[in-house]
Task: structure prediction
Amino acid sequence: MKHRWTAALLALALVLALPFSAAAETFSTEDFTMEIPEGTYVFTPTTSTEDPNWAMAGVANPESELSTLAEMNGVAELVTADGETTILVQQQESDQTQAYFNLRYLTEKQQADFLDAIMQSQTDEITVDKYYLDVDGQPFYRIRIDGTYQETGYHELIYGTIVNGFTLAFNIYGGEESVTQEQEDLLLGIVESVQFSEILPKPETTVDTSDIVTTISLLVLLVLVQVPVLVLPVLLLEPVLLPEPRRNAALARMHRFFQVLLRTVFH
Result:
C-alpha cells in the first residue's frame, strides 16, 4: 500500500513539473492563421458596433475604433482580457510590396538595406532598435521605438514581414508608457504562431528592389526638411491609435500626418 502511495505521489510530481501552455484560440483569414490567448477580444472591420465585447474591452466609441481600423488597413484589433494591451494586425498590398514580394527572397544585403530604410530617428531622444526574427523560415522585422521628445513619450513595438506581395504587421503602441516585457512576450508568441496558407514564388518583374530602397531613403531626407524629429513608417508601418480614452492628442496629429504622407507617396 505504501509503495502505491509513493508511486502516485511521484506521478503527481511529474505532472506538476511539466510546463503548462496557456490555452489559445485560432484566428484565420484566407492568407494566414495565428494563435491568440484564450479570452482575447477580437474586433474586425465587420464587427458590429452593438457587440457587447466593445464595452467589456474598455472601448467607449466602437464607431471611431472601426473607422480607425479601416484607415489603418487593419484586419483585426486584439485586446487582452484585462483591457491593458491592444494589438493592431495590419495587412496591405501596394506596388512596393509587390516589388519586394517576399523578404525571404531578398539577398542579405537587400534585407539589411530594407531594414535600415523603413524607420529612422533623427534625435538621440528617440531610439529605434531593429532586427530580423526567423519565423518558420519567414523573416519578420522587429522594430522597437522608445523615447521622449518635447515632453511627449513615444513607445511602440512592431513585428512585420512582406510575403506573397503584401505586408503583414503586428503593432503595440504604448504612447506615454513603455511596452512591457510581458506585452513583448505576448506579441512575440502571436507572431511566432503565424502560418501562411501558401508561399508563392516571386513573379518576374522589371523593378529592382534596390531602387525602392533608394527611393525610401530619399523620401526620408525630403521629409526631414519639414519635420524636426522623424520616425518614419513605410509599407504599412503606420503607428497604432489606441481606443479614445487612452489616446494622446499630439501623437494622434503626428499619426495623421504620416497617414497622409504614406497615402500620397507610396499608394
Remarks:
- The chain has eight helices and ten strands.
